């Protein structure tokens, strides 16, 4: 799966244990801020019926691939088409000029390959689930040869070693449909989608500070939308990065937005993931969830993302400061009508 700040890869065991402590086998679990779909994919693999949602197009594509699409239906057709797409000759155009020449996220050679494959996918007129699988393969292939520190707010002054590798498509790790039933992926604002879902458990992992996932991964958004947007700045960000703003990236906005989302949910149990670098503190989150009944908290030490570990640099790339700490605390808040026996991690 793609590199992603806030990815829960290292926390999956804790999250699955927390969900298993509150959900019966085969329960329906909603993931309202799905991101890379890593958590939804793991929940599906554990046998839950998963309902994923994210408001960004690239995240919705990842969830459609990893949560909604089923291996028994799509693995072989996708494998055949990916082999054909791999053989498409490179063809440079707007994408290559914008993100590989004017900016340097990919080498022009790999950018031209990405561009030709993306055009070919657009020309297939594939069913939405199949198209999502093909696009996910392309996103992940591009991510493996990018030249960034993990975010698309900037790119390396010199090509990263991996950027010189050839772009190679792989079949994403599709999962079979769970016995609990078909999973689904939605693309909307969390508060709106929350009001429409029927689920047993809701897992919430909202943005927690000023970092916008649209701005951090604007190239992937463009690669999925394929809309040739106007761009700005050295990083060639999409202009809608300035207008598609989320209340969850705002210190005054996040509390009311999260409270409304929680109120809109019609499920007995919530599991909320939040970071101690976030705009809301532990006490505020416990108070917000108190109306749901018992609130228990699991504390998990968690290493900061790589960009936070390399120090503070000015626009010229000169190091001008050091980070204050290398480890955060990730909180898992479990709110339920009944007090539950949580896994023995660091419950408080």
Structural overview:
The chain is α/β, with parallel strands linked by helices and 348 residues long. It has one domain: Vaccinia Virus protein VP39 (Rossmann fold), CATH 3.40.50.150. Helix content is 38%, strand content 15%. It contains 13 helices and 11 strands. Helix 3 (57-68) packs across helix 7 (128-144), helix 3 (57-68) packs across helix 10 (218-225) and helix 5 (94-101) packs antiparallel against helix 6 (108-124). The protein starts with 11 loop residues before the first helix and ends in a 12-residue tail after the last strand. The mean pLDDT is 91.
Shape: globular
End-to-end gap:
32 Å
Using the 3D structure, state the CATH architecture.
3-Layer(aba) Sandwich
> Strand order, biggest sheet?
3-2-1-4-7-11-8
β-strand number: 11
Q: Radius of gyration, rounded?
A: 20 Å
CATH superfamily: Vaccinia Virus protein VP39
Q: Beta fraction of the residues?
A: 5-15%
Low-confidence stretches: none
CATH topology: Rossmann fold
Q: Average the pLDDT over all residues and give the rounded result.
A: 91
CATH class: Alpha Beta
Structural class by helix and strand composition:
alpha/beta
What can be said about the biggest beta sheet? 7 strands, mixed
- SSE run: HEHEHHHHHEHEHHEEHEHEHEEE
In helices, the fraction of residues equals: 25-40%
Number of domains: 1
How many H/I helical runs? 13
Features:
single chain, alpha/beta, Rossmann fold, 38% helix, two-stranded antiparallel ribbon
């Amino acid at each position: 799966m793609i590199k992603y700040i806030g990815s829960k890869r290292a926390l999956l065991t804790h999250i699955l244990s927390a969900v298993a402590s509150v959900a019966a086998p085969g329960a329906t679990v909603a993931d309202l801020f799905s991101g890379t779909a890593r958590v939804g994919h793991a929940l599906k693999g554990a046998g839950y019926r998963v309902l994923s949602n994210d408001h960004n197009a690239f995240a919705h594509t990842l969830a459609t691939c990893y949560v909604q699409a089923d291996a028994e239906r799509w693995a072989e057709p996708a494998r055949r088409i990916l082999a054909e797409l791999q053989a498409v000759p490179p063809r440079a155009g707007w994408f290559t000029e914008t993100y590989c020449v004017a900016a340097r996220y990919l080498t022009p050679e790999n950018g031209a390959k990405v561009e030709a494959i993306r055009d070919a996918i657009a020309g297939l007129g594939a069913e939405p689930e199949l198209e999502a699988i093909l696009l996910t393969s392309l996103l992940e292939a591009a991510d493996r040869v990018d030249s960034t520190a993990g975010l698309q707010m900037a790119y390396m002054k010199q090509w990263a070693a991996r950027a010189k590798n050839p772009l190679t498509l792989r079949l994403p790790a599709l999962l079979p449909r769970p016995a609990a039933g078909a999973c689904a992926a939605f693309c909307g604002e969390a508060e709106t989608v929350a009001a429409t879902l029927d689920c047993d458990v809701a897992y919430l992992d909202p943005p927690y500070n000023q970092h916008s996932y649209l701005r951090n991964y604007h190239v992937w958004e463009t690669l999925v939308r394929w809309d040739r947007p106007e761009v700005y700045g050295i990083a060639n960000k999409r202009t809608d990065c300035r207008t598609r703003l989320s209340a969850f990236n705002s210190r005054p906005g996040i509390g009311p937005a999260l409270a409304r989302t929680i109120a809109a949910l019609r499920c007995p149990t919530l599991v909320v993931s939040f970071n101690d670098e976030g705009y809301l503190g532990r006490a505020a989150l416990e108070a917000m969830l108190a109306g749901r009944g018992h609130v228990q908290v699991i504390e998990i030490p968690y290493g900061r993302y790589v960009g936070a570990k390399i120090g503070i640099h000015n626009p010229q790339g000169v190091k001008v400061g050091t980070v204050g700490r290398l480890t955060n605390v990730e909180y898992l808040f479990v709110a339920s009508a009944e007090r539950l026996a949580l896994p023995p991690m660091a419950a408080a």
